[in-house]
Design brief:
This protein is mainly alpha-helical. It contains 4 helices and 3 strands, in the order βαβαβαα. Helix 2 links the parallel strand 2 and strand 3. It comes from Streptomyces umbrinus.
C-alpha cells in the first residue's frame, strides 16, 4: 500500500521525491523520519558501510528539509531496534536541523499523530 492506497504515514521518508511530497500534501499524510539512525557510532560499521550511510544521511537531510519547507507534516519516531529505546528525545534536535521551529517539533512529538 502507498499514499495512493490510503496510508496515513510514511516511515523514514529518507529519499522522498517531489512527487511523494506532493502526494503527502494532497492526502494529509505525515512522515515519521528517524534521523537518529544516522548518528550511531562509526565502530558499528565497516568503512564502506559507514561511507554509504553518510551519503544516505546527506541525501535524506536534503530531501526531508524540502518536505519540511513545503509543509509536509512530521511526527516523532525512532527506529526501534536500531536506536536504543528511551533515546527518542534526541530525535527532536534532529528535527530542528531540518528547519522545523521548536513549536513545530513539540507538535510533531505530541499532536501530529493524533490529527
Amino acid at each position: 500500500m502507498d499514499l495512493r492506497g490510503g496510508v496515513s504515514s510514511i516511515e523514514h521518508g529518507y529519499l522522498i521525491d517531489d512527487e511523494g511530497i506532493d502526494l503527502m500534501l494532497e492526502t494529509g499524510a505525515f512522515v515519521v523520519r528517524t534521523l537518529s539512525t544516522f548518528h550511531m557510532g562509526r565502530e558499528r560499521y565497516t568503512a564502506e558501510a559507514y561511507e554509504k550511510k553518510t551519503r544516505l544521511a546527506d541525501a535524506a537531510i536534503e530531501r526531508l528539509r524540502e518536505a519540511v519547507r513545503r509543509g509536509v507534516k512530521m511526527a516523532l519516531g525512532t527506529d526501534a531496534g536500531a536506536v536504543p529505546h528511551a533515546r527518542n528525545l534526541e530525535e527532536l534536535g534532529h528535527m530542528m536541523k531540518l528547519g522545523m521551529s521548536p513549536l513545530d517539533v513539540i507538535r510533531a512529538g505530541t499532536l501530529t499523530p493524533l490529527s
